[in-house]
Amino acid sequence: MSGVWVFKNGVARRIENPTRESFESAPASAGGGGGGRRSELVYAPTGELVGSHEELERRLGELGWVRYQAGRPELIQYHRGAASPDLISLPRRFADLRSIHMYDIAFKNRSFFLVRDRRSTNRATVP
């Protein structure tokens, strides 16, 4: 069976052909794993959003990560050196970066990166 299972209040239902809209209109599960919610990567020491691969590479470089030259042109990869098994693999297009990639970065650099929900751009400004 293909599709995506959605769980709510102990009841499971399957969405045959999932789209972003179907997740947004589906009732949210207790785990908060519904679609439509976007995340952002934050460099914790300064509170700045990381908005490009150039910014990310600069921050990772400060922490000892170097670009790993792999044979996969669709990926950008970073490693900490020959003695470390840590490897971060990211899509070449920054726009394709998903929360799973951000959590991988944050987990491997716990004191330096955070992942948070993207803030609404249409909120009221308080003078």
How does this model look, in words?
It is a single chain. The protein has a domain at 39-116. A hairpin with a 6-residue loop joins β5 and β6 (75-79). It is α+β, with helices and mostly antiparallel strands. 20% of the residues lie in helices and 28% in strands. A three-stranded antiparallel beta sheet has the order 4-3-8, covered by helices on one side. A three-stranded antiparallel beta sheet has the order 5-6-7. A two-stranded antiparallel sheet has the order 1-2. It has helices at 20-25, 53-62, 99-108, and strands at residues 4-8, 11-15, 39-43, 48-49, 66-68, 75-79, 87-91, 113-117. The longest helix has 10 residues, at 53-62. The model is unreliable at 26-36 and 121-127 (pLDDT under 50). The protein is built from three helices and eight strands.
Strand order of the largest sheet: 4-3-8
Task: Give helix and strand order, one letter per element, not per position.
Answer: EEHEEHEEEHE
The end-to-end distance, rounded to whole angstroms, is 54 Å
Give the C-alpha Rg. 18 Å
> What percent of the residues sit in helical stretches (DSSP H or I)?
10-25%
Low-confidence region ranges: 26-36, 121-127
Shape: globular
Quaternary structure annotation: single chain
- Average pLDDT works out at 79
